[in-house]
Amino acid sequence: MQTDAGYDPDRIGVRLEPDFDFSSSDYAALFSASNATAFQHPLWLTEFYGKLAPARDASPVVVTGRDESGRLVFLIPMILRRIRGFRLLEAHDLGVSDYCAPVIRADARLALAAQPHLTRNVAHALPAHDLLRIRNCRAETVEDWRLFFTDPFHDHDFAAHAAELGTDYDSWRAAALPDTFRKQLDRKKRRFFKAGKVTIERLAEPAAIRQAIAAIASLRAGRFEGDMIQWPAVAEFYAAVAVAGSTDGVARTYRMSLDGEPVAYVFGLCHAGRFNYLLIGGDYERFGRHSPGLVFYDELIREWIAEGGAVFDFTIGDEAFKADFGTTPTRMMTLETPRSGLGRLALAARGARRRFNAWKTTTS
């Protein structure tokens, strides 16, 4: 059976390619023909599988689907880890990928949905595992995951938050920001800009970018529980992405200074008109009275609108300040399914720990 796009669903071959090259033209063509996010970008996954996964003892599990000509139709980026004796198969997360998704040619989706044995073929390609976990899924990508896994998804305990922007900064600001917050922010900005010469730079030199990522890690130390950038391997991963992505703008690293003194740094990813904010580090001991984070976000949104950007995505996490920038929440979904008796025990133990931690929080 041929679909409208010319794909024969019965002739899409599924296989495991653990040595897949994410820097290849093959993958670049698939990514550009998909609706995937910045966290499936060739650069991000090249560094993820090349640097971070080995440092975390995670084996690559890359499942591909190819048509008769060998062209990639889909790719599922996953990893396999052994944790406390059980084998965990999971999406390309490791605490850094805010949005996990399969990469699917947009014109092949109907063909994949028409293939009755696709989930079985994917299951046969996967290595043995005790627990399947897919986290950080935007609600709109769940149907893509369900092409390959029929297990139920559930709501995560957090959402993602993004601001839809207009073509004019002042008009967007007047419409999106609550009046009280906008006036407070304006007062903070006036005071900050009167304190001296404020500069916001998009860094280009590799040494400056690496120094900025190191500064972010240092400035955040002790402020956030479970802060991934405090792990040297994660900091190196971010630095590698920041440097490699700086030339074509996929990754951006900014520094805000007052009279030449660094005040704060921001790191994020850009793709398809969307700025994905990932990290901020600010010198709040010296400059906290100016609310440098809020000022920085506002100025970056101004710049992104001027460049024609459509969305400023604060990504995952329910910090209260995000709503002040006129964001809309997006449900995040997760899948956790045992594949063995050991997996059922592991899942039960995880559930017990979560309930205990929730109980401690409510009784403390």
Automatic annotation (TrEMBL):
<dbReference type="InterPro" id="IPR038740">
    <property type="entry name" value="BioF2-like_GNAT_dom"/>
</dbReference>
<protein>
    <recommendedName>
        <fullName>BioF2-like acetyltransferase domain-containing protein</fullName>
    </recommendedName>
</protein>
<feature type="domain" description="BioF2-like acetyltransferase">
    <location>
        <begin position="181"/>
        <end position="322"/>
    </location>
</feature>
<dbReference type="InterPro" id="IPR016181">
    <property type="entry name" value="Acyl_CoA_acyltransferase"/>
</dbReference>
<dbReference type="Pfam" id="PF13480">
    <property type="entry name" value="Acetyltransf_6"/>
</dbReference>
